[in-house]
Amino acid sequence: MSDYPHLHSSCLNKLTLNPEDRIAEILKPRWIGYPLAHKTLQRFDDLLRHPKVSRMPSLMLIGNTNNGKTDLIKKFCQTHLPSNNENGEHIVAPVIYVQAPPSPNEADLYSVILSSLYERVPSASTSAKRNKTISVLKEIGLKVLCIDELHNSLAGSSIKRQQFLNALKYLGNELSISFIASGTEDLLRAVSIDNQIQNRFQPMLLPRWKLNKDFKQLLCTFESILPLKSPSNLHSTMLCKQIYNLSEGSIGELSTLLNQAAIYALRNNQECITLKTLSDCGYIAPSERNREVSIRL
Known about the structure:
Mean pLDDT: 93
Largest sheet: 5 strands, parallel
Shape: elongated
Structural class: alpha/beta
Pfam family, one: TniB
CATH topology of the largest domain: Rossmann fold
Low-confidence stretches: none
Organism: Vibrio algivorus
InterPro entries: P-loop_NTPase (IPR027417), TniB (IPR008868)
Protein name: AAA family ATPase
């Protein structure tokens, strides 16, 4: 039996590192699984396995900023990485990830898709970019195109938004592919101008966390991968409530808070997170940050 039952087995070897090296481990990207995340990834996998039909289904992952949308999409993409294609000019990539262009510009959409595949982007007309994009995506066997932060591309005029949505529909129809798009609630409002897009993209909501047993279990998961030698008991009533109030129900903020607290603890010769650690580590809650910005402006 481990001397550190609060830690996951994969974390035990990190305890032999000096504090600064443990801090480096804390700062590395990591995947935190939880029930809704597993359910969401299953829905993504269902899209990948869906047989080709005239109108392929698609999903919109909707949630507040810093609440795990990008992590979920990237996790799905990392599970389905491209493979070499020795008999062809292109890799085989059933899933690709792109970040939405900053404005509703059809040509920019094709440019970010081609760039993500390290393809030369034609400097000619939009139609030339469209044709090359379609040709390349057919070559790689694309099945699911993941577009992160799509609400950013739909912030322009209604005419521009409609043209951009038409481009997505055209790609979907021409290639018989599904889309996974992520965005804030602004994305739902933006696509409301097009009934066909609304019908194709089923929304999946990623709500803020509530102060309940699921949140306590999430804290246990976080604690199991933070390389601290003593148990913090983050799920205990006082700590749990304070952590929830500070992170305001956002998993991204929760990760930042616990990282910051663990780093503060290590740099102050402590091996657990306490209420005092949370108070002294320098973390500022999102609403407080916004309030400070408003005052200064």
